[in-house]
Structures are given as structure tokens and as C-alpha cells.
Amino acid sequence: MPVKHLISLWLCALLLPGAAIAQQNDVHPLLGNDWVLDAGVFFPTKEFRFRVDGSLPGDGIDFEDAFRLSDDDSTAAVSLLWRFGEKWSLAGQYWKLSDSSTATLDRDIKWNDVVLEEGSFARAGAGLEVARLFFGRTFSAAEYHEFGLGVGLHWLELSASVEGQIRSNLGDTELYKDSVSADAPLPNIGAWYTFAFSPKWALRSRVDWLSASIGDYSGGLTNASIGIDWAIWEHFGVGLSYNYFSLNVDVDKNDWQGATKISQYGPWLKIGAYW
Q1: Mean pLDDT of 209-233
Q2: Which of 96, 148, 236, 257 has most Cβ atoms within 10 angstroms of its Cβ?
Q3: Domain count along the chain
């Protein structure tokens, strides 16, 4: 799902009129508690594209397409929100995803200064680990809604590897194996909005965004979600959200000069605890 569609949904949620709901006697646990813990399973559709430059830059390798990586892996995801004071909050989020596969290549693949030729047997792996920390301030709040802005930090760990047969200058074949990795803290700005249309049901949305050149990295990051939560009991509920994560950066490190484009989007089914 393109990020512009997700942001459009987020704006629609933000513009829902508060007058459309009568004043509630009870407050949804998402708005009436200091701590909110969500844990569940993320089912992302994903894209891993990496480029490692040799003497001349090459085209990005679409790992999903070239190596037939699975696009239906699930992964655990967790988030924690802490409200302190009257207007301040601290939120954390974590998930990790990795995949590997083997394939007979249907075209030449260029990695660094090496070409894995069409018809050769090759193996590839890719991974992403994300830890998010977000410090926010509430600017508008009532019994049925909350809106805030803040700044955050995404700590990312990226990895990619290829292995396969290459042909030497003498015409012989030999096994080639190489891997690259990078980790970086990337700051961002963000916003969130929660709208409780009953004491049991609430709509939650948020978006984080970055476009900058920071150290060895330059490019952009988007991390957004929109979903609904059902408070079954006072301190327990379930929820379903649609999460979108996109990273598109150039990398200029000693062991990796190139670029990466990663996207993950799909449903997150979760349980929640409030206290």
C-alpha cells in the first residue's frame, strides 16, 4: 500500500469531528491510563533491494525477485507507551525480520565487482532490525481524543549477503561469498492521533518521517500505522492495525558503499494491556 494512501487515511482520522460523538461517561483505557503495552504478530509484505558499488555503481538487486525470498513471513512486534506528567509521553517499538533463499538465477546479478551469471545457483539473505523511541507532547486532549507531536529515534540494523558460483578470467568457476551490514540511529519527527468513539472502541493512528543526510547515510524514512482497538475489559484488549515502514537511503561506509531500499507493510494483530 503506497505511503500516500496511508497518510490520507491518517488525515481522515484526524479530521473526524469530535461533535459526532456524545460525551462519554467512561474513558477508553487507551486515553485513561499511563501505560499501554501492545504485543502481537506482524504479517508484512516486504521488499529488500540492495546495491553494493564496485569500481562502477551497479543497479540495485531486488532480493525478493532475483532470489525468490518469501513475502509472507510473520514476525513478533511489540510497543510500549508511557504517559508522564500532564502532557508528556515516551513510546517504544521493536520488530525484527530476516529471510534467506536459494535460486537458479534467470539473469546476471552484479554485486560489487562480481557478476553472478544467469543460470548459476546462488543464495541470498537479507535482514532488518528496528527499534523506535519516540518522545511526544500532547497538544489537544479530551475524554474521547488525543493529538500530539514529537521527535523520535529509529535504531536500524541492516544486513545483506550473496553466495554463488562465478567464472574467473581463466574460465574456471569458483565459489563467491560476500556480506554487508550497517547500523545507524536516524532521528525523525512524528505525530499521533487517537479517537475513541465509545468506551470500548478507539481508532489509533501515527506517522514518523525523516528526510535528511546524517553521517554515512542520506535518504528518507517513513513509519506509519492506523488501526482499531477493542477494550474487552478494563485492563485488557485486542487490536488490528495496518503498519507501513519504508527506508530508502544511500550508504557511504568503508565496508559498504551503495544503497538500500526496504519496505514492509501489512497487518499487525495484537493484544493490549492498560494500567
Answers
A1: 90
A2: 148
A3: 1
